[in-house]
Amino acid sequence: MIAASRRQFLARSAAVGAAAAWSLGAEELPLLHHLVRRGETLSGIARMYGASIRELKVWNGLVGDLILPGQRLELRPQYRLLPLADIVPPKFEADRWRHLILHHSATTAGSARVFHDFHLARGMENGLAYHFVVGNGSHSRDGEVEVGRRWTLQLNGGHVGNDAYNANSIGICLVGNFERTHPSDKQLGALVELLDYLKNKTLRGRARLLLHRDLEQTLCPGRHFPAGRFRELFG
Ligand SMILES: [Zn+2]
To answer: Which domains does the chain have, with CATH numbers?
Structure first.
């Protein structure tokens, strides 16, 4: 009796564990704030979370460097939304970017902020590995384009294994597991708009569209991603 219920319990736990690998539920969202302890400094806290001092100040409306024990600091990155006309950053170097690489998140849910925290926790010092994230209505709106700090600061991506490609490729991730489900019409519409803006207007046609699986042994961005249609439009 006890053995049977223990087996059932273990089986149920294993099933929950397997499901969790594919979905980032709200209950698994990482910590979004930090409670200041005595002796801590803004620069120390910034280092701890892979943020810059300036970012911490912007997120918390701080004017100076003074923080007090017990103060609650928001760690929520501010991702900028459309309109696209506004996303070219001041230090932009068009010649640097040679490829636009498409990914799916391979999770059922997510957003730039969720993946940012996840990638920070995995030891990526700049957090969010992609330059852009296109939401599916889970943690951001369906078809919402979120612009990551790797784009606004023009940093290398961290979205492929090959660092040469990370240095010269713009990484775009659609939230979803397209081995199992299809991207939404709004996601595909937003992706067309984003790629047209980046490739044709911003990079003057020079960047080449690639899928993650063109470079490395992976299914990414999944078999239900309409690859042919996008290669035709932006290859
Ligand atoms: Zn990928």
So the answer is: 33-75 (3.10.350.10), 84-234 (3.40.80.10)
